[in-house]
C-alpha cells in the first residue's frame, strides 16, 4: 500500500478501487493521478457529511459530483471550476430546505399516528365501559 511506497521512496500506488471509477477513465493519462486524488478527497468529505448530518439527503453528494465533473472539464478545456466555498454554501442552503421538508413530513406522520392511537384508546375505553354496563345489567 501507500506506506510501503513512502518507506521505499517508490511511486505511490495509483491502481486502487477509485482508479476504476468512470471519472478516472474519462481523464487524460497525465491527469489520472490528479483526478484520482481529487475524487478520493471528495469521497472523504462525502463520508464525513453522511456521518454528521441528522437528515440524510443527496444534496451534498450531487454537489460533490458536480465538482468532480467541473474538475475534469478544467483539465480538458481549462475552464475554471466554481470555488469550493461557493458550492458548499449553496449545498448547505439546499440541504436545509430538504431537511425542513423531511421534518415536516415526519411531523405530519407523527400527528396522524397520535390521532389514530387516541381513537383506538377511545374505542377501547368505550368497549370496556359497554362490558362493565352489560355485566352490571346481568347482576
TrEMBL record:
GO MF, one annotated term: snoRNA binding
Q: Which residues form a coiled coil?
A: 85-134
Q: Does the keyword Oxidoreductase apply?
A: no
Residue ranges of domain Nop in the record: 1-77
Per the record, GO CC terms? box C/D methylation guide snoRNP complex; small-subunit processome
List keywords of the entry alphabetically. Coiled coil
Functionally, this protein is described as follows: Involved in the early to middle stages of 60S ribosomal subunit biogenesis. Required for the biogenesis of box C/D snoRNAs such U3, U8 and U14 snoRNAs. Part of the small subunit (SSU) processome, first precursor of the small eukaryotic ribosomal subunit. During the assembly of the SSU processome in the nucleolus, many ribosome biogenesis factors, an RNA chaperone and ribosomal proteins associate with the nascent pre-rRNA and work in concert to generate RNA folding, modifications, rearrangements and cleavage as well as targeted degradation of pre-ribosomal RNA by the RNA exosome.
> Would you tell me the protein name for this molecule?
Nucleolar protein 5A
- What is the protein's species of origin? Crypturellus undulatus
Phylogenetic classification of the source organism: Eukaryota, Metazoa, Chordata, Craniata, Vertebrata
Amino acid at each position: 500500500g501507500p506506506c510501503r511506497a513512502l518507506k521505499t521512496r517508490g511511486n505511490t500506488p495509483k491502481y486502487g478501487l477509485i482508479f476504476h471509477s468512470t471519472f478516472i477513465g474519462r481523464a487524460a493519462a497525465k491527469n489520472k493521478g490528479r483526478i484520482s486524488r481529487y475524487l478520493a478527497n471528495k469521497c472523504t468529505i462525502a463520508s464525513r457529511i453522511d456521518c454528521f448530518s441528522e437528515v440524510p439527503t443527496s444534496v451534498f453528494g450531487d454537489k460533490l459530483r458536480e465538482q468532480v465533473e467541473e474538475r475534469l472539464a478544467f483539465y480538458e478545456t481549462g475552464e475554471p471550476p466554481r470555488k469550493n466555498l461557493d458550492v458548499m454554501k449553496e449545498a448547505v442552503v439546499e440541504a436545509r430546505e430538504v431537511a425542513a421538508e423531511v421534518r415536516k413530513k415526519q411531523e405530519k406522520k407523527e400527528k396522524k399516528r397520535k390521532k389514530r392511537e387516541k381513537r383506538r384508546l377511545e374505542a377501547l375505553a368505550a368497549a370496556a365501559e359497554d362490558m362493565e354496563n352489560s355485566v352490571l345489567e346481568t347482576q
